[in-house]
Amino acid sequence: MATAPTTTRDLGSADCVLDREGLDALVQALRARGRTVVGPTARDGAIVLAELESAAELPYGWGVELEGGHYRVVRREDEAAFAHSAGPQSWKNFLLPERVRQWTADRGPDGEMTVRAERHDPASYAFLGVRPCDLRAIAIQDQVLLGGRHRDDAYGARRTGAFLIAVECVEPGATCFCVSMGTGPAAGPGYDIALTEVLDDAGHRFLARAGTPEGAEVLAGLPQRPADAVTRTAAHEAVEAAAGRMGRTMPSVDLRALLADTLDAERWNDVAARCLTCGNCTMACPTCFCTTTEDVTDLTGDHAERWSRWDSCYDLDFSHLHGGPVRSSGRSRYRQWLTHKLGTWHDQFGSSGCVGCGRCIVWCPVAIDITEEAHALHQEALSKGGPS
Ligand code: SF4
Ligand code: SF4
Q1: How far is the CA of 214 from the centre of ligand 1 (A)?
Q2: Cis before residue 185, ω within 30 degrees of 0?
């Protein structure tokens, strides 16, 4: 029988156990702090990310069935809340929304145009259920959008102060390969609170640990009890077991070198024959960050706006330089995406651009699989005496 929860805990102390009541208290505590809590919920035949008013909206009892070009929610036999892997959205939908207005311009009575930059008020998000791969994806977008010369202040306003509650993976999807990319299934750095869901004879509960002082402060105010050995062991074993059940793997080679050495591979023709250049993979990818700008005016010409919106390296216009697109073929556009994601991203940002979430595999309408392509390139390189 479960020990009765206690309600106080020392700041900075180690892990503790929350039950479902504690999880709901966590959502309410964050809302009471003025945060907009966003987390997974079952809606419209998918597990989507949406604002939560209570933990009861979590997808208790729902799992997902994933494959290349295939996504289904399925009923589970238990009441797990986080037994689903990456869905159609990622946290970039909130931190880097699809469309953001940058400025407006209005003509005054004197005929002069006044331009007003859009104000980006700081958001106060709490993200509940951030998978370890997505935790890494947020860190990658931080590096791209905040870490260089071209800082995105609108992203910064949303990201600064976002409270991240990671949930370690115990139920990897058939398209997951975080182990190959070193991003999961255990949570790496960057979370305020990390949870591991445990469901066994001792009950439904969450092993929780704080990663920041604010995380410790929030945890300390929740109904909880000290972590026990049974829960710790169960949580550890569940994450270890998940690591051994990854649906996909990447070849165990230096992917950056592999991509650099296979620019002329025959495989690019094969994948180009299947790729629709629809850009779904870039929209679903939690690290893809490219945007373009659009200017619009009203019919009178007295009001104008500039918007940024997501762009994709699969769009012809994306590589339009003087006179036309540099990458006019599907082959060159797929190759650009993959070589950047797995190769030249390292040169630009010091890490891989892929976290192994598998979304690009699931949401590709023709089931093109980044891991299959990497293995095929590796095999072709081997057949030509390349890197082993
Ligand atoms: S490239 Fe695919 S698997 Fe890698 S992070 Fe992007 S969507 Fe996920
Ligand atoms: S790989 Fe798939 S999702 Fe990506 S552009 Fe090609 S067809 Fe679309």
Answers
A1: 30
A2: yes
Measured in whole angstroms, how far is the alpha carbon of residue 309 from the centre of its chain? 18
Give 224's DSSP letter. Answer: B
CB 173 within 8 A of CB 247: yes
Nearest atom (ligand 1) to Cα of 341: 1
Identify which of 28, 12, 30 has the alpha carbon closest to the alpha carbon of residue 20: 28
**Residue 355 amino acid letter:** V
Ligand number nearest CA of 280 is 2
Following DSSP, what letter does each residue of 285-305 receive, concatenated? -SS---EEEEEEE-TTSSEEE
Nearest-angstrom CA–CA distance, 190 and 184 = 13
Residue 204's nearest CA partner among 7, 23, 388 is 23
Distance 12 CA to ligand 2 centre (A): 46
What's the Rg (C-alpha) of the chain?
A: 23
Instruction: Tell me if 285 CB under 6 Å of ligand 1.
Output: yes
Compute φ and ψ for 376, nearest 5 degrees: -65, -40
Model pTM above 0.90: yes
Q: Which residues contact 333 (CB under 8 A, 6 or more apart)?
A: 275, 277, 313, 314, 318, 319, 327
Residue with CA at minimum distance from ligand 2 atom 4: 281
Q: Would you write out the chain's pLDDT as a tens digit for each of its 388 residues?
A: 333 333 333 334 479 999 999 999 999 999 999 999 999 999 999 999 999 999 999 999 999 999 999 999 999 999 999 999 989 999 999 999 999 999 999 999 999 999 999 998 888 999 999 999 999 999 999 999 999 888 999 999 999 989 999 999 999 999 999 999 999 999 999 999 999 999 999 999 999 999 999 999 999 999 999 999 999 999 999 999 999 999 999 999 999 999 999 999 999 999 999 999 999 999 999 999 999 999 999 999 999 999 999 999 999 888 888 888 889 899 999 999 999 999 999 999 999 999 999 999 999 999 999 999 999 999 999 998 866 5
Give CA–CA dist 171/84, Å, rounded.
7
